[in-house]
């Protein structure tokens, strides 16, 4: 009887944990797949189908370290464009990315996609994070 | 006997695969040796005078002995130009050591794209030497030239609609006839362009021996 209750409780806890995880996963997948479509129409022409960039003109999106270090600035880069000398995969770039004409939620989606494609791995970049980051753009 | 055999052979080759000639054609009738002869005159690319990324003057004459590919772009283009030149890089890699195959990219934003800007663009694209020129010249002259190429694109039923900014690659032979038009935003079209350049090279090789 005691065992039965414990097992029952464990099962409940387990299922709560499980459903939380899967809800996270569902959120992630929702951001990721919307982001994939946005990438094709808004980014792929410049950064390439596999995030490979274009020679020394356009940087690749394969530098996981760069993306990690600049995670909190990425939303602003997309909203306002980027025109700074930067170092990606150890190579210098000094081009100009025009502002992407995207809503905050779309920025969140495309950033989730980029940070989890081309060999990159990161957590979901959700709308709350993007809104907070956009409030602090320089 | 051997000669006959050779002739028959090369004849067969040249009919085997030949690229079409695009553009308006006019029948021109002239009198040769007292006889009336009608000839077809094909649309040719008119003369031009532009400056390349090294600051050197380039005219149609500079390309007299070349098969070349032309396109139109500008360095600050945010839309299709990066795709076009990602694809064109494949053409460049394939033929950069072939002296009679060239690429010329005309800027349609000459105000911004000076020779120095074009040189920097070429450097960043990894392009050196003289097999790919980036040309700057008066806007009207560039547009007029574009029109001359693109009327043929419009005629080419294989090419999808849309004109000046549509990202076409245009293949021109040594006689300055248009031999093909390709959607420069599509890797598979670019592959066909590379194949067609090789076909054209074979055509010239066969003509030389016959």
Would you write up a description of this structure?
The complex is a heterodimer of chains A (138) and B (210). Chain A has 138 residues and is mainly alpha-helical. Chain A has one domain (23-134): Cytochrome c-like domain (Cytochrome Bc1 Complex, Chain D, domain 2, Orthogonal Bundle), CATH 1.10.760. Helices cover 58% and strands 4% of the residues of chain A. Chain A has six helices and two strands, in the order ααααββαα. A two-stranded antiparallel ribbon of chain A has the order 1-2. Chain A starts with a helix and ends with a helix. The mean pLDDT of chain A is 93. Chain B is α/β, with parallel strands linked by helices. Chain B has a single domain, classed as Glutaredoxin (3-Layer(aba) Sandwich), CATH 3.40.30. Chain B contains five helices and nine strands; from the N terminus they run αβββββαβαβαββα. A five-stranded mixed sheet of chain B has the order 7-6-5-8-9, with helices on both faces. In chain B, α2 (81-95) runs parallel beside α5 (187-209). The longest helix of chain B has 23 residues, at 187-209. Chain A binds chain B through residues 45-46, 48, 54-58, 95-96, 98, and chain B through 76, 78-80, 82-83, 85-86, 89, 121, 123-126.
| CA-CA gap between termini of chain A | 63 Å
Helical proportion of chain B? 25-40%
Main beta sheet strand tally, sense and closure of chain A: 2 strands, antiparallel
Low-confidence stretches of chain A: none
Write the CATH fold name of chain B. Answer: Glutaredoxin
The main sheet of chain B orders its strands as: 7-6-5-8-9
Q: What is the CATH topology of chain A?
A: Cytochrome Bc1 Complex, Chain D, domain 2
In total, the number of strands of chain B is 9
What is the CATH homology-level superfamily of chain B? Glutaredoxin
Q: How far do the termini of chain B sit from each other?
A: 15 Å
Q: Rough shape of chain B?
A: globular
Q: Work out the strand percent of chain B.
A: 15-25%
Going by helix content, strand content and strand pairing, the class of chain A is mainly alpha
Average residue pLDDT of chain B? 85
* Fraction in beta strands of chain A: under 5%
Structural class of chain B: alpha/beta
Query: For the CA atoms, what is the radius of gyration of chain A?
Result: 19 Å
Number of helices of chain A: 6
What's the structural domain tally of chain A?
1
Summarize the biggest pleated sheet of chain B.
Answer: 5 strands, mixed
């Amino acid at each position: 009887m005691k065992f039965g209750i414990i097992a029952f409780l464990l099962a409940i806890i387990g299922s709560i944990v499980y459903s939380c995880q899967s809800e996270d996963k569902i959120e992630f997948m929702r951001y990721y797949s919307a982001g994939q479509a946005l990438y094709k129409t808004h980014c792929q022409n410049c950064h390439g189908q596999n995030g490979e960039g274009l020679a020394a003109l356009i940087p690749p999106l394969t530098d996981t370290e760069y993306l990690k270090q600049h995670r909190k600035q990425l939303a602003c880069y997309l909203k306002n464009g980027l025109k700074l000398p930067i170092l990606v995969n150890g190579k210098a770039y000094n081009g100009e990315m025009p502002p992407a004409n995207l809503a905050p939620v779309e920025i969140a989606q495309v950033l989730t996609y980029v940070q989890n494609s081309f060999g990159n791995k990161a957590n979901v970049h959700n709308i709350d994070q993007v809104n907070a980051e956009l409030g602090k753009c320089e | 006997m051997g000669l006959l055999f050779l002739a028959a052979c090369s004849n067969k080759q040249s009919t085997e695969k030949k690229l079409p000639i695009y553009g308006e054609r006019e029948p021109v009738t002239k009198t040769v040796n007292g006889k009336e002869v009608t000839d077809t005159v094909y649309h040719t690319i008119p003369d031009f005078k532009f400056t390349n990324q090294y600051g050197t003057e380039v005219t149609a004459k500079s390309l007299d002995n070349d098969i070349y590919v032309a396109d139109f772009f500008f360095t600050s283009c945010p839309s299709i130009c990066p795709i076009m030149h990602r694809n064109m890089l494949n053409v460049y890699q394939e033929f950069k050591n072939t002296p009679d195959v060239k690429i010329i990219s005309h800027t349609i934003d000459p105000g911004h794209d000076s020779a120095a800007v074009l040189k920097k663009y070429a450097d960043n694209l990894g392009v050196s030497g003289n097999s790919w020129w980036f040309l700057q010249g008066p806007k009207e002259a560039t547009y007029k030239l574009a029109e001359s190429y693109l009327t043929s694109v419009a005629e080419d039923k294989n090419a999808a609609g849309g004109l000046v900014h549509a990202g076409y690659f245009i293949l021109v032979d040594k006689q300055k006839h248009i031999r093909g038009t390709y959607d420069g935003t599509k890797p598979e079209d670019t592959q066909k362009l590379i194949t067609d350049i090789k076909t054209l090279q074979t055509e010239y090789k066969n003509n030389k021996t016959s």
